[in-house]
Structure formats: C-alpha cells, structure tokens
Amino acid sequence: MILRMSSLFLRTLREDPADAEVPSHKLLVRAGYIRRAAPGVYTWLPLGLRVLRNVERIVREEMDAIGAQELVFPALLPREPYEATGRWTEYGPNIFRLKDRKGADMLLGPTHEEMFTLVVKDLYSSYKDLPLSIYQIQNKYRDEARPRAGVLRGREFVMKDSYSFDVDDEGLAASYEAHRAAYVKIFDRLGFDYVIVQAMSGAMGGSRSEEFLAIAENGEDTFVRSPGGYAANVEAVVVPRSAPVDASAVPAAEVVDTPDTPTIDTLVDTLNAKHARTDGRDWTGADTLKNVLVMLLHPDGTREPLAIGVPGDRAIDEKRLGAQVEPAEVVAFDEADFEKHPTLAKGYIGPGVLGKDNTSGIRYLLDPRVAEGSAWVTGANKPGFHVINLVHGRDFTADGTIQAAEVRDGDQAPDGSGVLETARGIEMGHIFQLGRKYADALDLKVLDQNGKLVTVTMGSYGVGVTRAVAAIAEGNHDELGLVWPREIAPADVHLVATGKDPEVFTKAAELAADLESHGLSVIYDDREKVSPGVKFKDAELLGIPTIAVVGKGLAEGTIEVKDRRTGTRTDVPLQEITNHLVTTVRS
Ligand code: ATP
Ligand code: MG
Predict the structure, then answer these.
(1) For labelling alongside 23, which of 163, 337, 342, 429 has CA 20 to 30 A away?
(2) pLDDT of residue 202
(3) pTM score
C-alpha cells in the first residue's frame, strides 16, 4: 500500500485548533487524523481511520483468541428492552432518544446489555449451549455532559463490548478471567503504561468489577495504589468503619458561642481563642464535623436533599459521591432549598436537625471515620453557635454511612497493605460480572443438567476503541508531533523525496514500490513543489516510526533513515535500503 502525499486526502495544520486543550486532541487534528463534526462527534480522515482500524484489529485478534464471536447490533434500538431493565429512565439525559414516524420511542445505544441478553434468549435454551462469549465493535452514543479532549470523551464513539453467558458462578468466574487475560494482552500490544484497578460497576449493577486505566496526567480518573498491591479507582475505595470508642469520659455536650465562623478555619481559630481544650492540645479541623447539603436529582425528575457529615479536615469528593448515588445526579442545594428548610442555619448546621426522624427530615449519612462514641465540634443549628463534645451514638445518630469523603495521598489502604499514593489515568477498559441482573429482568433462562430452568449469569466487558487512539497519542508524542507505536501507525515507512532532481523522485518511487512488494505500507511524499523543510515537518507531525529520506545522499549512493522516536539517523547504502527497512519494520 502506497499513500502518495500529492493525492492523499490530508491537510496538516501549523496552528493548534482553538477548542483543543490536551496534546492528543491538538495533534490528531493538526496531523489530519480527525475533524470535528459537532461537539463530541468526529470524522475519521484516511490516516486516522487507518490507526483506528489497527486498534480494532488488535482488539479483534485477542477477543477471537479467547473464542469470543463477533456480531454486530444496530445502534438504533427500540425502547422496550431498556424499559424492562429500568435503564430507559436511569440513563436520564445521557441517552439520545428519538421517535420514529409512528411516534414509537427509540434510542441510540449507549451500551448493549439488553440486546445481547435478548438475542441469546431468542436462540439458546440449554446449558449445553453455554458458555458463550459474543462481542461487537460498534458505535455507541452517549449525550455526555462534558464531551472532552476530542475523541477521548466523545458523544459518538467506538466501543468493543463483549458479554459472557454462563450457567453458574464458576463459569462466570472463568469467563471473566479469560477476558481479563485478553485485556492484558490488548493493552500490552497497544503499548499502554496501565494499571488494573478495582472499580464501581456504575449503572450496570453487578459484583466484581475492574478497570484498565492508562496512566496519564490528563486523565479524568483518579486511582490509588499501595506498595502492598492494593489498586482502586478512588470512586471504589471503601474506607472501613472506624471501631467504636469509649465515650464515658466525654463531658456533656455544650453549646458554645462562636460568632462569624461559617468555615472550618474560622471555627478552629475561634475555638482556640475562646474555648481552649482542657487536654493541652489545640483544636484542629479533624475535631470538627462538617455537614454538607446536596440535592439529588433522580432520573424520574424528583429531587431529594441529602446531608453528609465528614471530618472537617476532609473535602467531599464529587466523583466518589456521584458514584455512590448513581443513577441520581448531584446538584447544588441552593438558596431556594434553604428557604424550604427553615431549621437549617447555613454555616452552622449540625446533626441536631438532620436525619429522617429529625425536624428537617433530611437523610443524613456519615463518613465511616465518624466512630460510634467519638466526640465532635459541630453546628448548633443557630447562627454563630457550635456545640462541643457531641458524641456519635450518645447525642446524635445518622441514617447510615457514605463513601464520599476525599481519599488522599498518605491515607491507609483499606486492606492494610500500606500507605496510598494517588495518580491519574484514562479509563481504557472495564470488565465486570453482571451476574443475573439482566437475565432476571429479561427472563433469560436455560435448562440445566437436571432439566430445571435456571437463570443465566453474565459478564460485560468494554474497551474504548476511539478513546484508545487518543490515549495512545496522549502517551506518544513530542513537541514536533505524534510518535506512533509500530503496530498502531497508519503506515510502516514515511518516505520523503527532496530537491528538484528527477532522479531522486525516480529512485524514491522505485523504493516505494519495492517496499510495497515486501508487504510494507508506505506514505510517500512525492510532492514536487514543496520544500524539504515542510516535508520534514509533516513527517514529524504525522508520526510514522520510520522516516526515509531520498535526497542529497543519493549522489553518494545513500538514503537517510531516521527513527522518529529516538531521532537517530543512519545513512544506508542504496542496495541495502529495502532489506534495512523491512528488517526495521518487522523487528
Ligand atoms: P467514563 O467513566 O469514562 O464515562 P464509563 O465507565 O461510562 O466511562 P463504560 O460504560 O464502562 O464507560 O464503557 C466501556 C469503555 O468505553 C470505557 O472503559 C471507555 O474506554 C469507553 N468509553 C466510555 N465512554 C466513552 C466516551 N464518551 N468516549 C469514548 N470512549 C468512551
Ligand atoms: Mg466504566
């Protein structure tokens, strides 16, 4: 395959696109791989499509290798199956909904659990048919609140999604392990520096769940890991409940005067100035219990206030909170909401009015660090006043606990495996055991060995294919442009002919044909009126791993070969050039 720059459908750009913030987005647009069609919706130009196909090929090969079979569902789907599982409502504004000419509701599939479950129900009826793994590589549609960074978070994107069907839990565990191993191979081949972390199962329900995160500063996900091998998305970190403590020596709760202390810092200063502790140490933020109000917006449109109590030295992590209350969305508890709850004194809210059985009637959940028997300084529900020595279990109770406080560097791993360190990543793949949730909702049963009907158990496994292109670009570029790993690159060799000498172009064309006959794909820069400088800039921007230059050296019988990643240049004699390039590409 030879792609001639003189006719290739490509325009490289010298300027970064105005809407691009991260390097991969800038470079993929500048190098002519993708073009924006609408926010979060992109066109794949010839070179971009070649990269995308390479990623797909790797994914396909590894899925086929574990015996998964490819099929493809429509993206345009009927409402009913999604209604049956509750997701028509749960997905809320995140799905694209449309009506056909008869007024029937349809949607563009955000993920296809329902359709896969139904097709298996349609065709299979016995345990003898299982296990089964089927997959597709197909466009998905999600009306993301914040499409971002080009194809990294699109509203139309390509996902590989596979689903396993087993008759029992052991079968599911084996299918899950097979997929996990295939994912390791896929992400190794894609050249990612990645971690496998424990994950939340999100809108899909289910039990065991892990994510493959590409380690990247620009990633939207935060994960933690410990020296002892614990690794989890922060969303999935489960902080253990602190053991109860003895409160018998804690004096009775006492309301104290703390004027103008709506924040933790002002409160701590005032306490130390006016209400010094008797044990000699100073008050700190960790002694305070901060009560934060949020509003949950449920998919059916109802609003539910929620109060969360966390130690005052810790913030609420929006993503952790969001993951806990899904499918509800967290929105601000605004002035109008405060007006509806007159017992709430803004800045001085305490457990005294919170909880289902209290005056506000607002559900109250505590951080698991707030041990039974522990004493706190917290709001007295009166502007300018706090209460000290308020003991959990003695003086107040809550409706439960919630994993919503931030997880920080230096926190202990929940499994006791050491101190946590946080880092960021891009979610590239997600595998989880759905269990019987979908099979139950859609009544997928088969006859077991004893002729008894049993519900099938399922796994669901996704890879972000278009996202992978962006994430690979994110991890493989320099100030000059992209630097593709060999297996992903849109061509094997970028061949540049420079100067005006017709002999140069004749030799370069011969070399291109020769490489093609050896099975290599070549981008051949045959443009006659373009300066060498522009050609070199384009070659660097496009990021093919090997660049060969036919030009000045030809008089001495050599061609310059440049390694795009290391910048190393070698002058290779003409008679050895084909062999040299073929060996380089195949090594
Ligand atoms: P995220 O948390 O990033 O929104 P998700 O957890 O909703 O992703 P899944 O439903 O697990 O995503 O989808 C499987 C895979 O599809 C993800 O691991 C990711 O690689 C990819 N993916 C999900 N949403 C997008 C998107 N908007 N654009 C591109 N790829 C996506
Ligand atoms: Mg996910």
Answers:
(1) 429
(2) 55
(3) 0.91
The whole-angstrom separation of Cα 456 and Cα 386 is: 55
- Cα 425 to ligand 2 centroid, rounded to whole Å: 13
For residues 150 and 291, membership in a common domain is answered with no
Cis peptide before 259 (omega within 30 of 0): no
Torsion angle of alpha carbons 198, 199, 205, 208, nearest 10°?
Answer: -10
| Ligand 1 binding pocket mutation candidate from 52, 204, 427 (most atoms within 8 A of CB) | 427
Distance, in Å, from the CA atom of 357 to the CA atom of 359, rounded to the nearest integer, reads 7
Pick from 317, 310, 308, 312: nearest CA to 267 = 312
Cα–ligand 2 centroid distance for 431 (angstroms) = 8
Q: How far is the CA of 155 from the centre of ligand 2 (A)?
A: 15
The CATH number of the domain holding residue 71 is 3.30.930.10
Q: How many domains does the chain have?
A: 3
CB 329 within 8 A of CB 317: no
Residues of the chain with pLDDT under 50: 203-205
Segment 36-73, tens digit of pLDDT: 999 999 999 999 999 999 999 999 999 999 999 999 99
| Residue 487 placed within a domain | no
What residues are in contact with ligand 1 under a 6 Å CB criterion?
111, 142, 144, 153-154, 157, 159, 202, 427-430, 462, 464, 466-467
Ligand 1, atom 18, lies closest to the CA of 429
CATH code of 571's domain: 3.40.50.800
pLDDT at 450: 95
CA dist., res. 369 & res. 240, Å (int): 8
Q: Whose CA is nearest to atom 28 of ligand 1?
A: 153
Out of 59, 161, 318, 467, mutate this one to test ligand 1's pocket (max ligand atoms within 8 Å of CB): namely: 467
- Backbone dihedral angles phi then psi of residue 237, each to the nearest 5 degrees: -70, 125
DSSP single-letter state for residue 153 = B
Rounded-to-integer distance, Cα 425 and Cα 278, Å: 46
Taking a C-beta distance cutoff of 8 angstroms, is the pair 397, 339 a contact?
no
The pLDDT value recorded for residue 203 is 47
Ligand 1: which residue has its CA nearest to atom 14?
A: 462
Residues facing 445 on adjacent strands: 455
Amino acid occupying residue 530: V
181 and 263 housed in the same domain: no
Q: Which pLDDT belongs to residue 31?
A: 98
Cβ–Cβ contacts within 10 Å for residue 587, how many? Answer: 6
CA distance 458 to 208: 12
Q: What is the pLDDT of residue 330?
A: 96
Compute the distance from residue 157 Cα to the ligand 1 centre, in Å: 9
User: Hunting for tokens 């396993």 — which residue is that?
Assistant: 164
- Protein residue whose Cα sits closest to atom 21 of ligand 1: 464
- DSSP helix/strand/coil, 511: helix
Full residue range of the structural domain in which residue 368 is found:
254-401
**Which residue puts its alpha carbon closest to atom 7 of ligand 1?**
202
Burial of 324 (0-12, 13-18, 19+ CB in 10 A): middle
Structure confidence at residue 460 (pLDDT): 96
